[in-house]
Amino acid sequence: MNTSRLAIGVAALALSTAAGAGAHAAPCANFQVLGTDLHLNYDPFSPTPVDHPFLLRVRRLSPAVAGVRFILLDATPSQGRSRIGSSGPFDYNIVWLANTGQQVFYYTNQMPNVANSVSTSFGPGPAGDVETLNFALQIPPGQPVAASRQFENIEVVYQCVTGASFGPTQIQDDSRLRIHLSIPRYFGAYIGSPGRNRGEIDFGTLRDDTSAAEKHVAVTAVSTVPYTIAVSTDRGSELKRSEHDADGIPYTMQFANLPVQDRSMLVCPMTKTALGDTEQLKVKLAGDHLHQLHAGVYRDTITLTFTPSDTNWRGDGCTVR
User: Can you give the pTM of this predicted structure?
Assistant: First the structure.
C-alpha cells in the first residue's frame, strides 16, 4: 500500500585445538541446500512463526567415507543471539526433522559429537554417494525489522567416518547453505480499530460557560519503512456550520504530543512493535466566545495523509518537519 488517508470528522568461529589442524585437510564431504529452499519472506506483522522445511544434500568426496556427522552454526551472532543478517530477526533456529528433540544448530563454538550432531551413513557404490536430509528453518513471529534483504551463511562443522573411526574436524564456510530473507515494504494505518480509516470526535452540546474542551482519537500505523504524515483541515482549524461562515470555533491539535496545525508535516521512523505504533490525535477547542455564535452544528474535517518513505530516518519517534 503506497498511501493511506485518514479522515476525521470533528465535532568468526574459533574451535579448540583439534579443529584448527583438521580444518586444513582436504574436504571429505560437502553440504548444499537444494535449489531455492532457503529463499523466503518474513512478515513482521504476522502472528504466525516461520516454520520452513528445506532439503540438505550431503555428498561424500571419497568412496572410503562411510558416514558423516555434523552440526550447523551461525558464525556471526548478534548481541549473543542468533540473527539472520546484520539487522534481520533474532533467535532463529534450524531443526533436523528426523529428530526434532536433538539440538543441531548453534551460535556458540561447538565440536560435533554423538550427542549434539546430525549423523548419516552412505550406501555402497556411486549411487550411495549422496544423502538428502530434511530440515526446517524456524523464525519467531512479531519482530520489528525494516524492509530489506538479509543474508546469513550457515557454517557446517563436520567429521567423516572412514573405517571405524572419525577423521579430523572440518569446516565448510561458503555460501552453499545461505539464507536469503526478504522483509517486504509494508505500510498500513487505521483509526481506532484495524480496517477503519475514519473516526469522529464529538464534543456534544457546547454551552456558553464551556471552558476549553479536549478530546482525542487513537491513530495506529504499522510499517517496515519510515513514513511521513501530512496534516490538513477543510476549514482552517475552525469548527463552522458551513465553509462560508465568517466565524467559528477555533481549535488546536497535537499528534504524538507534538503541536501540529493545518499543513503540518511529520516525519516518523518505521514502527517499533509488531502491533504498530499508536498515537493520539488530540483536539482542543477554544471556547471563549461561544456566546457570540449562532446555534447550530459546527464541524471540520482533519485529514492525515500517510506516505511511506525511502529515507533512513531512525529517530525515536515522529518529529515535525
Answer: 0.81
